[in-house]
Amino acid sequence: MSSPAPKSPELSDKSKKYDRQIRLWGEHGQTLLEAATVCLVNVTAVGCETSKGLVLPGIGGFTVADGSTVKEEDLGNNFFLDSSYLGKSKALACMQLLQELNPDVNGDYVEESADFLLANRPNFFDSFDLVIASNLNEHTLLLLAERLWELNVPLIYCRSLGMLGTIRLQIREHCIVEAHPDNRQFDLRLEHPFDALRDHLAGTEVTSKVPWLLVLHKYLNVWQKQQADGTQTPRNYKEKNQLKETIREEMKADEENYEEAIKAVNTAFGAGQVPKSLKAIFEDDACEQLNKKSNVFWIMAKALKHFVIHENEGHLPLPGVLPDMTANTDSYIALQHIYRQQALQDADQVYHKCQEYLKQLALPADSIDERSVRLICKEAAGLAVIRGTRIAEEYEKSSRLLPLVEDNELQGNLTAYNFALRAYERFLSECGNIPGECIVEQDIGRLKSISAKMLGDLGMHATISDDVLHEICRYGGAELHAVSAFIGGCAAQEVIKIITKQYKPIDNTFIYNAITTESVTLKL
């Protein structure tokens, strides 16, 4: 009688609940998410949809700030307000209905407007990891953005008006370790094998049962001897085909590892070099000139640079990850062990250099742990740094805006809509009412005048077409739930990217037109 198969380890309740997202950003990403607190400023449909996208995956806590009460017109587009809350606090209603989605998340609310908080409680925003705001007037937006820039608290500002939506990310500096590139290349080091790999390759007989990496290495050596100019790896289509033919000539019947080796010729070489993006990080002043206030990312980046230049002949640390290969279990595990051990050894050297730098800066040794160093070594080829701009800079003359204008016209409808939405926000500040709410034709003229002055102040000799301005006024300040849900979902993803420090967020403006289903990302 056969023994029963071993049971898989039981998942915790939390792991079951969040299993699908943990597959995306890992346990460490989930831990960062559960430790974060965010603030939602202004209860709108798009703001609530953004918050929904954070409460469901288990954000640590959220606070809703809004000084207004629920009115009839709020009920048509916002699922997080209902008739039982008519005349009551919007902040309370939104907080309670959001918290019902996930009781594990801590919710709080403040019945005060952003203007009141900035004027009377300027330290209110200090404790948040990120602030989400939506559909503010220009005056309030600029005050809030400046305060958060001073505090170094990221701001995601969402607009949703009729069939239009935008997201603007304001962040000083964002360092990304796990960028999750779409086409990750495995670093196999075949052209520059390290000692343990070289010994293994030399001491293992190539058969139909070994991983394709050994097959490829064997015939790479054969191909190298055929090259009169001493070429070490195939550089172009012709040379790669020559190597493929060299392997194919030695095949007997159906040998899967040989077939895999032939396929791997296109992608197996060239990894382990320092890409341009990482070189820029190495040459950055923040990497060159460490101080006590340096982000630990930059300390690890400098240690990584030292390892690459002085200890590893210009190559990156080995990630230690192998692709799947057809082979017998023992030979694959043996090869996998060699790569993992070398990766640990490389990471250990980088870790010890990090400890040296921490000691020089008189910082605690536990500021950087071994796990963090192993992760940055594994992901070294994809490291990225984003340095953002203040929202206020968009309201000042800047050469960055000039490429958006050609022949006195704003380039593209999406760009025109973005500036029209800004004119809409200035209209709210200057006129005190929503354009198109009462007399559409009169408001179109006022909006046109405001937009012309706004573009003139920016040094942009351009106009926004009457059709675009008419569209803005026609909406009368209305949010459509479908558009707000889409923009909110996108914004929630950007928040998660920032909190988990994984995947690259937008840099820095996303514009969406639901009429044409077009979108564009601009750096403003």
Describe this structure in words.
40% of the residues are buried. An eight-stranded mixed β-sheet has the order 3-2-1-4-5-6-11-12, sandwiched between helices. Strands 7-8 form a two-stranded antiparallel ribbon. It has a two-stranded antiparallel ribbon with strand order 9-10. It is elongated. Helix 4 links the parallel strand 2 and strand 3. Helix 8 crosses helix 9 and helix 14 crosses helix 15. The chain is α/β, with parallel strands linked by helices. It contains 19 helices and twelve strands. It folds into four domains: 205 residues, NAD(P)-binding Rossmann-like Domain (Rossmann fold), CATH 3.40.50; 81 residues, no CATH class; 115 residues, no CATH class; 84 residues, no CATH class. The N terminus is likely disordered. Helices cover 47% and strands 11% of the residues. The longest helix is centred in the middle third of the chain and has 32 residues.
Features:
single chain; 524 residues; alpha/beta; Rossmann fold; 4 domains; eight-stranded mixed sheet; two-stranded antiparallel sheet; 12 strands; 47% helix; 11% strand; elongated; ubl conjugation pathway; amyloid-beta binding; Ubiquitin-activating_enz; coiled coil
